[in-house]
Structure formats: structure tokens, C-alpha cells
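Project standup — Tuesday

K.O.: blocked on the structure for the chain from last sprint. Re-posting the sequence here as requested.
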Amino acid sequence: MTVMSDQQGAQTRPNSEPTAGEHGTRHTDLFDYDAELRLHNELFRAAARVGSRDRVLDIGCGTGQSTREAARAAVAGSAVGVDLSARMLERARQLSEDQGLPNITYQQADAQVHRFPPAHFDLCISRFGAMFFADPVAAFTNIGRALRPAARLVLLVWQDRDRNEWASAIRRTLTAATATPTGGADPFSLADPTVTEGILAAAGFTEVSFTDVHEPVYYGPDSATAFDAVLRLWEFKDLLANLDAATAEQARTRLRATLDAHNTDDGVYFDSRAWLITARRHRPPHPICPNHPSGANERLP
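H.V.: unblocked you, prediction finished:
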């Protein structure tokens, strides 16, 4: 396992996605993950290094920004985005059609069990979409079957909750407590590099590397917009739903104060840490030619 120091300040590249304002996501009731993760996405796109002929699989694609960027780079290849959310995929298809991308498709499927075409893809990417599998070894094994030998895997996942201010500080604001949530989907399930490397190794991946990514997340141009955005996130929406009316109003007041404290001239930002993980699908060894005079040193082509 290789662990590298943090990356910051990636340069924007010509095949980047239009901004949230250009494609109108901010006008829907879907949370705008693309705006939130703009700085992360620049690093993720650079690490993916999509080739012009690559066939790309995007796991947990959401509204499809990373899938569309892959399709634009793979001009003689293709990109397939997979997600469980029908509403996000509807938006993804609309945006892809609006942007005239003929080499892109989307599938509503569970990547843990979906029957992908075997040994088909050159690259699998996932931007914060691979942390929610009930059985991660089974999931990555299934994904691995869809990749050709030595194909690349590029993941962006969150580090520990206590290293992500957007999760810990906002949760404390809404609950007035520091308890770590239990049960349900865990966005921090791949935070431990040793555990995650073991998962990927068991699933047939090698050359696993972790790069520390230290970039803020963005919640809007001002605290009022950020307030609406935060309450679209399922984790925080559920927290408020479980409170009585008076307690929920107190939590909203604390949230507004927290967002005001993080409001800058450039918008509302919270600190975050993530891992950029790269790996390769295991390449089976060439079979030995038993009748060759060189014996075990000679391999079949």
C-alpha cells in the first residue's frame, strides 16, 4: 500500500463539466453535489486520466458529472454511469442529451450484484459513490469481473468523520451532541486505508495507493443558500425529522449561526479530507508451457 501526501489546487481542464449555474441543478430539489465537490472533482478527473479509447464504468454516478467528463475524454470509447437513484439518473440523461454526448449511457442498478459484461471496461471510477455497499468485498469483486485484466480503478472516498468538518460540525450543530451515528449507510466506511486495501485485495485488485486530498466543500454563495442546501442532505434531513418542533427550531437556529460563521467572500465552505484511491485489476499470470526446454521460465503468449 502506498500513502501519499495531500493534493490541493488542481488546475481546471478543458473537458470539465459546466458549472451548476450553467446546467441548472441549483433550480431543482436535488442536492448539488457537483457544486459541493468542485475542487475535489478537479483532482479526481486528473487522476482518472481517461484515454480517448477507454471504456469507462462510473459507479454511483449521481447526476452524471463524472460520467459526462469521462465520455468527453473517451472520444473513441464510451462511458456507462450506474446509480440506484432514478431521479438522479433522469437528470443525468437530460444533461447528457443537452450536451450532445452520444457515447454515454446510464443504468439504474446495484453495482454489488448487477451483471456487467465480463472483462469489458478499461477503467472504473467512483466519486464518493463506493462507500455504501452492504458487502464491499462482494461488490468490488463483482465490479472487478467487469474490468479487463490490469484495468484501473480510481475512487474518491471520505476519510474519518472527525476529519470532515462538514459532517462533524454540522451534526453537532443540529443535535447539540457529539455522538457518532450508528446504523444506516456509512459514508466513511472506506476511511481506513488498511481496511480498504484489504477489501480491494480480497476482491482481486493490486497496486493500491492512497493520496490525501485536503479541499473544502462548498454549500453555496451565502449562508441562506447553504442552509437550504444542507437540509437537502439525507443525513441532516433525517436528524431534524426525529426532533420535536421546538427542538428542531433550536437546531435550525444553531445551523444558521454555524453557516454564518463559515461564510466567506467566496461562499460558504467547510473543511474536508478525502482519499484518492487508485488500484489495478489483478492480471493473471501467463500459463507455463510444460513442454518447452526452458521449463518454468517460459510462458505462453
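K.O.: great, moving the ticket to review. The first strand starts at residue 2 and ends at 7. The two ends are 30 Å apart (CA to CA).
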